[in-house]
Design brief:
Number of domains: 1
Strand content: under 5%
Number of helices: 15
CATH class: Mainly Alpha
CATH architecture: Up-down Bundle
CATH topology: Growth Hormone, Chain: A
Radius of gyration: 21 Å
CATH superfamily: MFS general substrate transporter like domains
Order of helices and strands: HHHHHHHHHHHHHHH
Structural class: mainly alpha
Largest sheet: none
Length: about 425
Amino acid sequence: MKAKLVEKNKMSKGRRVGIILILGLLIAVGPFSIDAYLPAFKQIAGDFKVDTSAIGLTLTTYFIGIGLGQLAYGPLMDRFGRRKPLIFGLILYISTSLLSAFAWDVLSLATLRFFTSLGACAGMVASKAIVRDLFDEDKVADVLSTLMLIMGIAPIIAPTIGGYVIAHYHWEMIFYGLAGFASLMLFNVVFLLPESTRPNPAAPLHPIPVLREYWGIYRNHDFFLFSTARGFVIGMLLGYVAAAPFIFLDFFGMSQESFGYIFGSNAAGLIAGSQINRLFLIRFTTFQITYVVSTLLVLVSVIGFIYILEDGDSFWMIYPTLFCMMTLIGFQNPNVTALSLNPFTKRAGSASAFVGAISMIFGSLASWFVAHYLTDSLLPLFAMLAGCAVLAHIAIEFFRRNYAQGYAFAKAFLKHPYQVKKRDQ
């Protein structure tokens, strides 16, 4: 079904709200696909006769697929528009989710999850690109925060739903449910979501020009520094997600139901951060908030690392520390995403795909590290969290020192707020 092209600043308020809701749900497909089956790790491991940690391979392949898939969807969405590749991705997601219910071992499930992620990442790329298409650059971070609110509901309800399914049915039903959710989103995309950009037949699809285009995007100093910072921030988030079953089910010995509540509460912190961020954006610029939150993230993560290094194992110290980290990540994710994409208009699809791919590469490495080294201590997890926070801050600090219009930070914060200059790229 061909959709009419909708242009920036020509949407009614009601249609704008509807589009944002659909985009938020599309982004939520990815995290919902992860969080819904986390409570099923023990049951799946029992059926496959392996340790629970071995099921972590299915998370790693999922993250790898999202990273690689976004690199492919970027040029496709610049060439053919946003909707056609998005529809293809949702169909791929639905079919592979159904097949996942028939997986017979870890390798088969991990392989199917890889292809499922190739479908899921279509919504992640399209949503950010459509936001960049339809909203002015000073509104992008605010709209992305709204998408984070919608997306953030997924990690709250998904483990609870997954735990309910495990308690009353079997793990295969989770994948049937994921396919049903994606089918609903396919209906919304086909009949309700408009096209936001004209197809560009000149956009390259051959690997050499595509790689050259990505290299051109990566050389932009705004993109390089903020996408790197985002990569480390997402590494913290996905590393925590991969470690969560071990932390709460194994280390603290919680029930699957309790795990759903605790995991959901940390996800609520993620949402709260993204929404408080919207209020701060009214008074301060995106970069100002990014810098302060980055500093706080380093402080909290280093405190947590030192506590674990001193053999601390109190739930009431570890849980609040993780909650604070998730809340700060909720602030940081939409801001560094917006700062990464701000320099681009014509190549917003490719830039959106690339920033997502970089983040998933970092997330894959973090989840692999956690799955490989997290055995009987939380030290590897908190070492990874602190390291990522410090490295993200280094990238942001480098930008402040070299590209923030030459103002000292205190002066810029009070009198000359930094705004990324728009460049038609």
